[in-house]
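Re: beginner question about structure tokens

> Can someone show what the tokenized structure looks like for a real chain? I only ever see the sequence side.

Sure, here's an example I had lying around. Input first:
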Amino acid sequence: MAWIRKKNPKVKWLHCIIHRQALESKRMNAHLHETLNEAVKVINFIKARPLNSRMFKLLCQEMGSEHQHLLLHTEVRWLSRGKILNRLFELRQEVHMFLLEQKFAFSSLFENQDWVCRLAYLADIFDKLNDLNLSMQGFRTDELSLNSKMCAFIKKLEFWLKKVQRNSVSVFPTLDKFADDSEIDNLNTICDCNREYLTKLRDELVDIEPRFDNILAKKQPQVSH
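And the corresponding structure tokens:
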């Protein structure tokens, strides 16, 4: 930056919008935060211990599972949580069986439909955030294009909010399929949790740049997920 200012003293700079978006997206309510922490502990219990990892692989092979490994969580690459949580959700039955065999206390989590619903929702929302993050990287990116993509994402948040306000989770495919397969009729609790997080995320992303306030003042067109 010092070299650039030496060449052009009038140059302007701003904090990376991707970094600010990442920080805002990490804030969530207590229930979702607790679910995320418990999911990470389950993953690390299996993946970070070589013996457990090998035993889990054998279990998956015996069960004919599509995947045989969990993905290791690291805080540095936190936006990869979408893939990490999706893999945990896909292997939830195998993980449940393994934790029962190991007498690990968190095995009961996978018997709790509310907890599994929150896990599915986290997998979906982090997957969407990861897509946003990736779209804002690469060559030929500038402030205008980044702001445009952020504005579009905020509009999507508005659309998702309208859905969950009607107790619909159709815009979150992992959660929607689980709710349908498990015949969960009452989605009020998970929708309340989702609505709280989406509202907070939208408001905090709007606070990143004052110009985003204009988005909420306009009539929002319907945006597909």
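Each token stands for a local structural state, so reading them left to right follows the chain. The longest helix spans residues 113-135.
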